[in-house]
Design brief:
heterodimer; A: alpha/beta; Rossmann fold; 6-stranded mixed β-sheet; 5-stranded parallel β-sheet; B: mainly beta; Maltoporin, Chain A; 5-stranded mixed β-sheet; 37 strands; 7% helix; disordered N terminus
C-alpha cells in the first residue's frame, strides 16, 4: 500500500515536471531576477502579493533567474518584469514581444542598458527606478537639517550626469551646492576635504567610483571628524555611520511594480520610466546623538510624504 | 635576473604579511548597479568610534583643536596647556622637558597627570613617572587635537590620571597625504624644521614625519635644547571588519643643564632617548560591538654625566635605561539605545636599570594587572549616568580600586548640570620606593643623597565636582564651569633622615606618604564666536590649595587666567593673540617665592599659493612683555620672535 502511494506520488511529480514547459504559453507574467538572493526574492514576493489582489494568481506567474533564461520557454508571456541590471540586459537583448518593466535598478543603470542594447524607452520597455529622485533627497536634507545651507556632493563618472539637475533642485530649495568632480583613478581624499571645509552636509550619490566598501571607511570617518553629517542612499550606509538615508526597500519596489502590472492587465499602459513612490527613511540615532541632533525616522518619513503630496 | 626575482618575492611576502596582496592592483571602474543600493558596507562609526558628547562625558573636558594649535604658534604642547583652566606650565628643560600640571604646583616631573598619545600612556618610569618627555612624543604639526580631562579619572584612564588627563590625538593619515616641509628661524637660536611624507590608498596609508625643535633655552639656563623626532604611522585595513594601526617613533632630547658654579651639578648636555612601537588592532563585531587590542613597547635611555671637578678621575652620572610594555584588551558594546559598556584588562610591566640611581645593576620590574569598566547608562532621556572603575594589582603597590560615578542632567536643550565623585590613585615610582644614590671614589663611599627605605604606598585623591555646560547658539557662546574639591591623602614627600655611614653629613633622603591636603576652587572656560571668522577662548581658575611645600611657604589661593583671540582676515591672512597670567606663587619643589607673571604671544600668518603648491608664512612673537622667571629664580623667558615658512604639495 505504502509502496503504491509512493510510486503514485513519484509518478505525479514526474508528470508535473514534464508538464511545466507545456504551460509556457499560459503565463501572464514572467519575473526575471538577476540573481536569487534575498532582496530580489523580497521584490518578487511583493509583486506576487500585489498581483494576487487582481485575478492574476501565483500559477500565472513564472519566476526565473537570468541564468535560467530561455526565450523559447516564455514566448506566450504577456508581461515581463526584470529585477536588476542583469535581468534588464537579458530582456533588452531578447526578442520578446510582450512589454518589459525593468525594476530594482537605478536610473543610470537602466539608461546604460538602453544605450548598450540600442533600445529606446517606450510603453514596451520601461522602468521603475530603485533610486530616489534628487528632489526627495534634498527635501529630506531640508527637513532633517534645517540649519544646513551648503550641500556637499562628490561626483564621479556615474553621478556626474546628475549635476545640472541637482544644481537646479538645490537652487529651488535655497540650498547651495558645493560639488567636486573626482577624476577616475584619483583618490577621494583631496576633493572630500575641500567639500567638507565648505559644506554643512554631505549628500552621497551612489557611484561605485566614490562610494564603495573600501572607500567608505575614510569618507565616513573624515566627514564625522569634520562634523559634517552624511545623507546617504541606503540603510547599509546608515548602519555604517551615515546620519540618515532615504531609500525604497525591495518590498516597496515590488509592491509598486506589482501595482503597475495590475493596472497593465486592467488595460492601462506601463507609461514612462518613473521613480518609486513609496520610500523609507532611516536614521543612525547614535550618530545623531553624538552630533547633538534628535531625529525621528518615522516622523521624517511622514513629513516628507506630506511635502510630496503638497499638503 | 636572480636578483630581480628575489626582490619581487620579498615584496610579495611583505604585502602578503600585511594581508594586502591586492594593494597595488589598480581599482577597476565598476558600473553602478542595484548592488550599490542593496549591498552591505562595513560598519565604520562603530560603538567605540562614536565619542561621548561633551555634555554627557563624566568630567570637564577642554578641547584644543587643530585650528587653536596651529594659530597659537606654540612649539611645545606645554605652551598650549596655558589655554586649559587650572594648568601651570614651564618651558624649562632643567629637570625634564617643558611640562604642565593641573591644580598642584609644578613639581620637577609633573607626575600627577596622565598623558596619552593615541591611546598609549607615555609617562617616563625613569623620570619618576614624569610626563614631560611624553609631551614631546610627536611634532605639534602632527597633532589633530588635545583633549584635556580636568579632574581625577583613574576609572577611565588608568592609575596615573590622578589630577588630569592630557589626551593627544594625532592627525588621521587621510589628512596628511602628500609632502609638507617647514622651517622656522628666529631669536634665541630658534631653528625648527619638519618634513612630512604621507602616501597610500584606501587599504593602507602611511605617514612619516621627521622634525627638529631647537633653541638656546631659557636665559640663565645652560641651553641649548634640541629635540629631534621621527614618527611613522601606518593605517591598514586588513578586512572589512579589521583595522590595524602601527606606530613607531623615536625622540631624542638633548638639553643643556646644570650650573658652572655647582660642582655636583655641573654644566653638561643631558640626552633622553625614547623609542616606541605601538600596535593597535580593532575588530568590529557588528554595529553594537567592538574589540580593540593594543600592544606597546617603549624604551628610554638617559645619558647624563660629567666629570666631578674637585677630584680628577671621578665622573658623576645620572644615566640609565627603562622600558614599559603594555598589552590591553578592550571590549565596547551597546545594549539597546540606553546602555553603552566599555570593559577590559591591561597588563603592564615597567622595568628600570640604573646604577647611578639604584646602586645596583639589577633590574627593577614593576608589574601591574588592571581591570577596568565603565557603563554609560541613559536613565532617562535627560539623565546620563557614567559609572565605572578600575581595579589595579601591582606587585609592589598592592591592590587598589578607583571607582567613579558621574551624573549628567540635561536641564533643557543646551544646558547640562553634572555631579560626580571619583577616587584615584598614583602608585609610587620605583625611585620613590627604591632610589639609592651613592657617590664612590675608588670603592670608598663619599656621600649619599636618596636612600629610600621603601615605606611608601600610593597617593590617593577623592574628588567631588559640580559642573555646568551651557550652549548659547544665538550668541555663538559655550560655557563650561567646574566647581571642585580634591582631597589628597598620603601625598608622597621627601624627608631627610640620619643614616650613619652614608658619607658626607651622614644624612639621606627618603620618600614617605607625608601629607594630606585639600584643593578646592572654581574654574570656567568660554568659547565665543563674537563675529564672523573670529573666535575668543577665555579661561579663569581660582584654586585654593592647602598643600605646604617645604614647610615655610604659606598656602594661599592661586588665580590664573588664559585667553586666546583668533581672527581670520581677507587675503588668507590670520592673526592671533594669546595672553596668560598667574598669581605669585613658589618655584617648583621649593619655597622660593615666584612673582606673578604674565605673557603675551602674537602670531600673524599669510597663506601662500605657489603654482599648485600651498604654503604659509608666519611671524610669531612670544612674550611681548618683560622677561619672566620660569622654573628657577635664575631662569628667564625673554621675548623671542621667529618666522616660519611652510610648504605643502
Amino acid at each position: 500500500m505504502t509502496l503504491y502511494l509512493q510510486r503514485s506520488l513519484l509518478f505525479l511529480f514526474l508528470f508535473f515536471c514534464a508538464a511545466v514547459p507545456s504551460r509556457a504559453a499560459e503565463w501572464a507574467v514572467v519575473i526575471v531576477s538577476s540573481e536569487r538572493s534575498t532582496a530580489y526574492q523580497e521584490a518578487a514576493d511583493a509583486v506576487l502579493g500585489e498581483l494576487a489582489r487582481s485575478n492574476v494568481t501565483r500559477r500565472d506567474v513564472h519566476q526565473m533567474t537570468t541564468a535560467e533564461w530561455n526565450a523559447a520557454e516564455v514566448t506566450g508571456a504577456r508581461l515581463f518584469i526584470a529585477l536588476g541590471v542583469e535581468a534588464t540586459t537579458v530582456l533588452a537583448r531578447s526578442e520578446v514581444k510582450a512589454p518589459v518593466l525593468a525594476t530594482l535598478l537605478p536610473r543610470a543603470s537602466f539608461e546604460r542598458v538602453l544605450r548598450d542594447c540600442g533600445r529606446r524607452v517606450s510603453g514596451q520597455f520601461t522602468a521603475l527606478y530603485l533610486n530616489q529622485p534628487l528632489t526627495r533627497q534634498l527635501d529630506l536634507v531640508r527637513l532633517a537639517l534645517p540649519q544646513a545651507r551648503r550641500v556637499g556632493v562628490l561626483l564621479g563618472s556615474e553621478s556626474l550626469a546628475q549635476q545640472a539637475q541637482l544644481e537646479e533642485a538645490a537652487v529651488t530649495r535655497s540650498l547651495k551646492l558645493v560639488s567636486a568632480r573626482v577624476e577616475p583613478q584619483e583618490p577621494v581624499f583631496n576633493d572630500l576635504k575641500k567639500i567638507l571645509n565648505e559644506a554643512d552636509v554631505l549628500l552621497a550619490l551612489a557611484d561605485p567610483q566614490i562610494y564603495n566598501s573600501s572607500s567608505i571607511q575614510n569618507i565616513l570617518l573624515t566627514s564625522f571628524r569634520a562634523q559634517v553629517p552624511m545623507v546617504a542612499f541606503s540603510p547599509a550606509y546608515v548602519r555604517a555611520g551615515a546620519l540618515l538615508a532615504v531609500y525604497s526597500t525591495p518590498t516597496q519596489i515590488g509592491q509598486q511594480a506589482g501595482a503597475m502590472a495590475r493596472a497593465f492587465f486592467q488595460g492601462r499602459a506601463l507609461g514612462l520610466p518613473q521613480y518609486p513612490q513609496d520610500f523609507s527613511v532611516s536614521v543612525n540615532e547614535y550618530v545623531a546623538r553624538s552630533l547633538g541632533l534628535n531625529l525621528e525616522p518615522q516622523a521624517l518619513t511622514e513629513r516628507l510624504r506630506r511635502l510630496e503630496r503638497g499638503s | 635576473m636572480m636578483h630581480l626575482k628575489r626582490r619581487i618575492h620579498l615584496n610579495g611576502l611583505f604585502f602578503a604579511m600585511l594581508g594586502l596582496a591586492q594593494l597595488t592592483c589598480a581599482q577597476e571602474l565598476v558600473a553602478l548597479s542595484e548592488k550599490d543600493y542593496l549591498g552591505e558596507v562595513p560598519i565604520v562609526l562603530s560603538v567605540s568610534r562614536l565619542p561621548q558628547r561633551l555634555d554627557e562625558a563624566p568630567g570637564a573636558v577642554t578641547i584644543l583643536d587643530r585650528q587653536m594649535i596651529r594659530m597659537s604658534g606654540a612649539r611645545d604642547v606645554a605652551d598650549l596647556l596655558r589655554l586649559v583652566p587650572g594648568f601651570r606650565v614651564s618651558t624649562s628643560f632643567e629637570s625634564n622637558t617643558p611640562q604642565g600640571s593641573y591644580h598642584t604646583s609644578l613639581s620637577d616631573y609633573s607626575n600627577h597627570v596622565q598623558v596619552l598619545v593615541d591611546g598609549r600612556s607615555v609617562y617616563s618610569p625613569y623620570m619618576q613617572g614624569g610626563t614631560g618627555t611624553g609631551l614631546q612624543t610627536v611634532a605639534i604639526e602632527d597633532i589633530e587635537r588635545i583633549e584635556v580631562l580636568r579632574g581625577s579619572n583613574s576609572a577611565a584612564y588608568g592609575a596615573r590620571a590622578f589630577l588630569g588627563t592630557i589626551n593627544i590625538v594625532t592627525r588621521d593619515t587621510v589628512d596628511t597625504q602628500g609632502v609638507q616641509a617647514q622651517v622656522a628661524s628666529g631669536e634665541n637660536g630658534i631653528q625648527d624644521a619638519l618634513v612630512r611624507l604621507g602616501w597610500g590608498d584606501d587599504r593602507a596609508r602611511f605617514r612619516l614625519t621627521a622634525d627638529r625643535r631647537a633653541d638656546h633655552g631659557l636665559s640663565g639656563a645652560s641651553g641649548p635644547d634640541r629635540v629631534n623626532r621621527v614618527n611613522l604611522r601606518a593605517d591598514l585595513r586588513t578586512s572589512p571588519t579589521d583595522q590595524v594601526e602601527l606606530r613607531a617613533g623615536q625622540t631624542v632630547i638633548d638639553a643643556g643643564v646644570g650650573f658652572s658654579d655647582q660642582e655636583g651639578n655641573d654644566v653638561r648636555t643631558r640626552s633622553m632617548d625614547t623609542s616606541f612601537v605601538q600596535l593597535d588592532w580593532r575588530r568590529s563585531l557588528g554595529p553594537d560591538e567592538d574589540l580593540a587590542v593594543q600592544f606597546s613597547h617603549t624604551t628610554e635611555t638617559i645619558s647624563d654625566k660629567f666629570p666631578y671637578r674637585p677630584i680628577a678621575g671621578v665622573t658623576i652620572s645620572f644615566g640609565g635605561r627603562a622600558s614599559n610594555d603594555n598589552l590591553m584588551l578592550q571590549h565596547t558594546l551597546r545594549k539597546g539605545a540606553d546602555l553603552r559598556l566599555v570593559w577590559g584588562g591591561e597588563l603592564r610591566r615597567e622595568s628600570l636599570v640604573s646604577r647611578p640611581l639604584y646602586n645596583t645593576d639589577a633590574e627593577f620590574a614593576t608589574d601591574f594587572v588592571r581591570l577596568f569598566g565603565n557603563a554609560e547608562w541613559r536613565l532617562h532621556k535627560d539623565l546620563v549616568l557614567n559609572a565605572g572603575g578600575m581595579f589595579e594589582r601591582g606587585n609592589v603597590s598592592g591592590d587598589h580600586l578607583s571607582p567613579r560615578v558621574m551624573l549628567n542632567w540635561h536641564l533643557t536643550e543646551g544646558h547640562t548640570l553634572r555631579y560626580g565623585l571619583t577616587r584615584a590613585i598614583r602608585p609610587p615610582s620605583t625611585y620613590e620606593k627604591s632610589g639609592n644614590v651613592r657617590y664612590y671614589l675608588n670603592g670608598t663611599l663619599l656621600d649619599s643623597t636618596t636612600v629610600a627605605r621603601g615605606n611608601v604606598g600610593p597617593e590617593l585623591v577623592l574628588s567631588r565636582e559640580i559642573g555646568y555646560l551651557g550652549e548659547f547658539p544665538r550668541l555663538g557662546l559655550n560655557l563650561d564651569v567646574r566647581v571642585f574639591e580634591e582631597d589628597v591623602r598620603d601625598y608622597i614627600k621627601s624627608f631627610n633622615y640620619a643614616l650613619p655611614g652614608s658619607g658626607g653629613n651622614n644624612q639621606a633622603v627618603d620618600f614617605r606618604n607625608g601629607e594630606d591636603f585639600n584643593i578646592h576652587g572654581v574654574e570656567y572656560q568660554i568659547k565665543w564666536q563674537p563675529w564672523r571668522d573670529g573666535q575668543l577662548i577665555f579661561n579663569q581658575s581660582l584654586v585654593d590649595n592647602s598643600q605646604s611645600v617645604s614647610g615655610t611657604y604659606s598656602p594661599r589661593p592661586f588665580h590664573s587666567m588664559g585667553l586666546m583671540l583668533m581672527q581670520k582676515l581677507p587675503q588668507g591672512v590670520e592673526a592671533s593673540l594669546m595672553y596668560y597670567q598667574v598669581d605669585a606663587s613658589h618655584f617648583p619643589g621649593t619655597d622660593a617665592q615666584a612673582p606673578a607673571m604674565s605673557r603675551i604671544d602674537f602670531r600673524l600668518a599669510k597663506a601662500l599659493h605657489l603654482g599648485s603648491r600651498r604654503g604659509e608664512i608666519s611671524l610669531v612673537v612670544q612674550n611681548l612683555g618683560p622677561s619672566y622667571q620660569d622654573f628657577l629664580p635664575s631662569f628667564y623667558f625673554r621675548q623671542q620672535a621667529y618666522v616660519m615658512l611652510k610648504l605643502e604639495n
